[in-house]
Each structure stands twice: as structure tokens, then as C-alpha cells.
Design a protein that fits this description.
Elements: E1 31-37, E2 47-52, E3 64-69, E4 79-85, H1 119-123, H2 144-153, H3 160-172, E5 176-184, H4 195-198, H5 212-217, H6 235-238, H7 246-249, H8 255-262, E6 265-271, H9 283-296, E7 300-304, H10 310-313, H11 321-333, E8 337-338, H12 340-344, H13 364-382
Parallel strand pairs: 5-6, 6-7, 7-8
Antiparallel strand pairs: 1-4, 2-3
Helix pairs in contact: 2-13, 9-11
């Protein structure tokens, strides 16, 4: 059976019998996001094949899809669904697709809405699968003023105390005040977030030119690739060592710990939850663990709400459940909060690409808003 999962698919940490990703160097980081329909433990280890997905237009990114086949020794079947995005220099089958890329990062900028297989689909050897769309989102004709107005509606609540916490951390440790980090799912990967500053897709002068000073101050961070920002990552996967880069941090640290410890960033932006739509009841505990880890290691966490409602539409959660957890923990831990959800309500289709009734990928205007709010937050923290 072959099922493809999207960025927002539910991720449950794999059973011990599943072979974890092969450790690679920092220049080749696999970003695999598993989804399991739990039943029996498979006999053999899963076999995977890599295949290139064509893009609709020349791009600096490519996509690798892992097809996993499993057999079991009992009557039930465990379906492991995974998508993988890996840098082109580490995957020979997609080197040609990334040959003209300015940087060797291969990852999906778009994917279909998450697919939940029904009982009949799981039993079938040929389940219905939506085609993968790796094309570039069609730019929306959204004037900069609309994005600025949206940003004003979701202003970060950075307080004097938050800034004092950040300063006290950086003064007593080796943290670099000009470095920040990002962890999250598909809407936080470089091509749709920080990398857009470097390649000119986001031009701060179109929005608030005064923010260029802050952008320049944190300039080193925009070219950095986080080891904990991956399409399909959930809060559970973020806290599971099996999905970390073993070459950088060994086999005991989680992706979040790896990202926090292997760099000298003094701030970390956390925006994860889209893929937790089926396991939303565990979200609060997982987010708490990330906050505790960041603060223990002298890194100021900044929480962002998300623009989608997948946990309600697909998982039956109370309305805005995950975002309300994010707001609650921001107050409890007294850390900065960026209400991206509130801001995105002022953009066409709430800052999301129209993907039917399960929208969750950011549109171009949504990406601009994401970056604008990030810069505004950094400016307030820096003071």
C-alpha cells in the first residue's frame, strides 16, 4: 500500500521496530514526517524508494517522496505514511532538479491537504490518492497596505520583562544576540519563510522600510537552515529523538533540542500544530516540553498561533483548540506571543492558499505577513 501524506498530516512517533533516518551531516538533513495508523508490528524493516516529483515551473527546490511498503505477521496492517524532503546534494535522484539552485535545499513548498484513509481505503491495495502539487503558489494581488494592516492586528506582545529575560540570558551565556532560530512545520521551512528575504521574494522596503535595520542586525539568521523546521513535523515528532539529525546531536536529543543546542541563537520562533489535527489532545504537553527546553538552555521562545483549523475540521477538536493552548502557555510562561491567526483574518482566504475545504499552506500574502510579524517581533525584543 502506498499513501502520501501532506505537511499537515498527523504524525505519531514510530514504534521502535521502525528504522530511524540514517544520520547525515549538517549539509544533508532528512526531514521525514511519519504518520502511522497503529495496528501490528511489521516483520521486516520498511523498504523505501526515492522518486523525483516534477515541478510545474523551474524552481530552486525539488521534492523527494518516500514510498514505504510494510507487511505484517498478523491479519491487521500498520500503514506508515511518510513524506520526506531532503537537500538535493544528498539525494542523487534529484540532483538534476536542484542543479540551478542558489542553495542546495530540496523541499516541498506545497502539498495537498492531509488525507485520512478510511477503513475501506486502508484495506485496498490501490487507495485513492490526491495528486501532489509541487507548483509555486499563484501570487495574490494583495497590496502591501493590506499586509501592514493585518500585521497591526496581530502585533507581538513583547514586554519590557520579555526583553529583560532575553538580555539576562545573552549576558550570562555564549548566546549570540544577533541570531534567532525557527522551528515548525511546512510553513516554517526556508523557501516559504526566512529564505525569501535572501532571494528577494520579501522586500521589507515595500512594507515598513524602518525594519531594515533590524533585518540587517539579524542578517546571519536568514541564511541558516533549522534542523527542526520540516514539512509534516508535529509537536510529537519535534520531541522524538528518532527524527533528529544524529550526525549533529547523536541519538538521544530530539530535533528541538538539537536545534537549540547546536547553534548559538538567543531567540527561537515556535509555530507548530498544523499536523497535530488528529492528536491534538497531546499538543499542550508537547509544547510545554519545548518551552521548558528553550528556557532551560537560555533561549527566549516566541510562540505563534497558526492560520488553519485542521484539528477542528478533521480531528473533532473544540474550535481554535491549538491556538488557545498556544495563547494560554504564552501567558503562563510569560513569553512573547505573535497572534498570527488574528492577523491572517484580514487577508484574502485568511492568508492561505485555496486548497478546497482544508486550507493550511500560506499564500504569498500569508508568507509576507509571517515575515513582517517576525521582523516586528525581533525589533521589539532588540529594543
Amino acid at each position: 500500500m502506498t499513501i502520501l501524506a501532506a505537511c499537515g498530516s498527523a504524525v505519531t512517533p514510530p514504534l521502535p521496530t521502525v528504522v530511524p533516518p540514517t544520520a547525515v551531516s549538517h549539509t544533508s538533513i532528512p526531514t521525514i514526517a511519519p504518520t502511522e495508523i497503529p495496528t501490528a508490528t511489521p516483520n521486516p524493516a520498511p523498504t523505501a524508494t526515492l522518486m523525483s516529483e516534477p515541478t510545474t515551473a523551474p524552481s530552486s527546490t525539488a521534492m523527494a517522496v518516500v514510498t514505504v511498503s510494510l507487511t505484517t505477521s498478523v491479519s491487521t496492517t500498520k500503514v506508515l505514511v511518510a513524506t520526506a524532503t531532503a537537500r538535493a546534494i544528498s539525494v542523487s535522484s534529484i540532483v538534476s532538479a536542484a542543479a540551478t539552485s542558489a542553495i542546495a535545499v530540496s523541499t516541498a513548498t506545497r502539498a495537498p491537504a492531509p488525507i485520512v484513509p478510511s477503513a475501506s481505503a486502508v484495506a485496498s491495495t490501490q487507495p485513492a490518492i490526491s495528486p501532489i502539487d509541487t507548483g509555486t503558489p499563484t501570487p495574490q494581488l494583495v497590496p502591501p497596505g493590506m499586509v501592514i494592516a493585518a500585521a497591526n492586528a496581530g502585533q507581538p506582545n513583547v514586554t519590557v520583562r520579555h526583553r529583560q529575560i532575553w538580555l539576562s540570558m545573552t549576558q550570562s551565556t555564549v548566546k549570540d544576540t544577533s541570531l534567532f532560530s525557527v522551528v515548525g512545520d511546512c510553513n516554517s521551512i526556508p523557501p516559504v519563510y526566512l529564505q525569501r528575504v535572501g532571494n528577494g521574494a520579501f522586500n521589507v522596503d515595500k512594507f515598513i522600510p524602518a525594519l531594515r535595520t533590524t533585518q540587517n542586525y539579524f542578517g546571519k539568521s536568514f541564511s541558516r537552515v533549522s534542523v527542526a523546521a520540516n514539512g509534516g513535523f508535529t509537536s510529537a515528532a519535534m520531541n522524538d529523538p528518532v527524527w533528529a539529525d544524529g550526525a549533529l546531536c547523536g541519538t538521544q536529543r530530539t530535533p528541538f533540542e538539537c536545534e537549540i543546542l547546536q547553534g548559538r541563537a538567543s531567540i527561537v520562533f515556535i509555530q507548530v500544530g498544523t499536523g497535530d489535527q488528529y492528536v491534538w489532545k497531546n499538543y499542550e504537553a508537547n509544547l510545554r516540553r519545548m518551552l521548558d527546553t528553550a528556557l532551560k538552555n537560555s533561549v527566549l521562545p516566541v510562540l505563534l498561533t497558526k492560520a488553519d483549523h485542521l484539528e477542528t475540521l478533521q480531528g473533532g477538536a473544540p474550535p481554535d483548540y491549538i491556538n488557545n493552548v498556544i495563547r494560554k502557555l504564552a501567558r503562563e510562561y510569560d513569553v512573547p506571543l505573535v497572534d498570527f491567526y488574528a492577523a491572517s483574518r484580514l487577508l484574502p482566504n485568511n492568508g492561505l492558499i485555496d486548497e478546497g475545504n482544508l486550507d493550511f499552506h500560506l499564500s504569498e500574502a500569508g508568507m509576507d505577513l509571517h515575515m513582517l510579524l517576525t521582523l516586528q517581533t525581533l525589533e521589539r525584543i532588540r529594543g
